[in-house]
TrEMBL record:
This is Large ribosomal subunit protein uL4. GO terms for molecular function: rRNA binding; structural constituent of ribosome. One of its GO terms (biological process) is translation. NCBIfam families: rplD_bact (TIGR03953). One of the primary rRNA binding proteins, this protein initially binds near the 5'-end of the 23S rRNA. It is important during the early stages of 50S assembly. It makes multiple contacts with different domains of the 23S rRNA in the assembled 50S subunit and ribosome. Residues 45-77 are annotated as: Disordered. The keyword Ribonucleoprotein applies. Keywords: Ribonucleoprotein, Ribosomal protein, RNA-binding, rRNA-binding. GO terms for cellular component: ribonucleoprotein complex; ribosome. The gene is rplD. InterPro entries: Ribosomal_uL4 (IPR002136), Ribosomal_uL4-like (IPR013005), Ribosomal_uL4_dom_sf (IPR023574). It comes from the Bacteria. Belongs to the universal ribosomal protein uL4 family.
C-alpha cells in the first residue's frame, strides 16, 4: 500500500511511502482494542478515593441509649453507619486500577487502530516537521495548510521536538506525540492521524519486532 507524502501547505511532494500490510492492512481485532483502551483509561485513575469507616470516625464511644425499653432498635455507638455522620459501610479505599497486558496484544491493538484509520481515509503522511521557535501560530498555519483546523488531530513525530510540542500545547483539538509513546486510545480518539515521513519506518520497526 502506498500513500503520497504531503507538504506543510497540503500540496503533494511527489514522493510516496510504502506502508506495510502487516501493520496498516490487517484484520482488526476489536477485543484487543477494547483491552488496550481499558488498560490505558485504568492507568489514568489516581485511585485516591477514600471514605471513613466506623472505626475511623472521631466521636464518643459512649452507649447512646439504654439497651432495652426505648421501643426502638438497640444502638451502641454514635459512629454506627445507620446514624448521620457515622462511618460508611464498605466505602471506597485507595487502590491501584492498573493491570497487565501482554506486549503482543498491545501491538495487535495498535495495528488494528492503524488499520481502521487507513480504512476510514483518516491517515495522512506529512513531510517531517520542525519549528525554529515554539509559536502556536506556526502550528495553526500547519493545520490550515492541511485543512485540519476544525478536526481533532494526532501528529506522530519520529523523535521528541519540543518546539513542535510547545507550539501545539494550547490548541484543544491537537495532540503531538512520538512513535515510542503512541497508544491505541490516542489513535482512535483523533479524527485524523498525521504521520511524519520519518515516523513510518520507526513505527513499523516498533510494531513488527517480536
Amino acid at each position: 500500500m502506498e500513500l503520497a507524502v504531503i507538504k506543510h501547505n497540503g500540496e503533494d511532494t511527489g514522493r510516496k511511502v510504502n506502508l506495510s500490510d502487516d501493520i496498516f492492512a490487517i484484520e482488526p481485532n476489536d477485543h484487543a482494542i477494547y483491552l488496550d483502551v481499558k488498560q490505558y483509561l485504568a492507568n489514568q485513575r489516581q485511585g485516591t478515593h477514600k471514605s471513613k469507616e466506623r472505626n475511623e470516625i472521631a466521636g464518643s464511644t459512649k452507649k447512646i441509649k439504654k439497651q432495652k425499653g426505648t421501643g426502638g432498635a438497640r444502638a451502641g455507638s454514635i459512629k454506627s453507619p445507620v446514624f448521620r455522620g457515622g462511618g460508611r459501610v464498605f466505602g471506597p479505599k485507595p487502590r491501584d486500577y492498573s493491570f497487565k497486558l501482554n506486549k503482543k496484544l498491545k501491538q495487535l491493538a495498535r495495528k488494528s487502530a492503524l488499520t481502521y484509520k487507513v480504512k476510514d481515509n483518516s491517515l495522512m503522511i506529512l513531510e517531517n516537521v520542525s519549528f525554529d521557535t515554539p509559536k502556536t501560530k506556526n502550528y495553526i498555519a500547519l493545520l490550515n495548510g492541511l485543512s485540519l483546523s476544525d478536526k481533532k488531530t494526532l501528529l506522530v513525530l519520529p523523535e521528541v521536538n519540543m518546539n513542535v510540542y510547545l507550539s501545539s500545547r494550547n490548541l484543544p483539538k491537537t495532540k503531538v506525540t512520538t512513535v515510542d509513546s503512541v497508544n491505541t486510545y490516542e489513535l482512535l480518539d483523533a479524527d485524523n492521524l498525521v504521520l511524519c515521513e520519518g515516523s513510518v519506518s520507526k513505527l513499523e520497526t516498533l510494531l513488527l519486532k517480536q
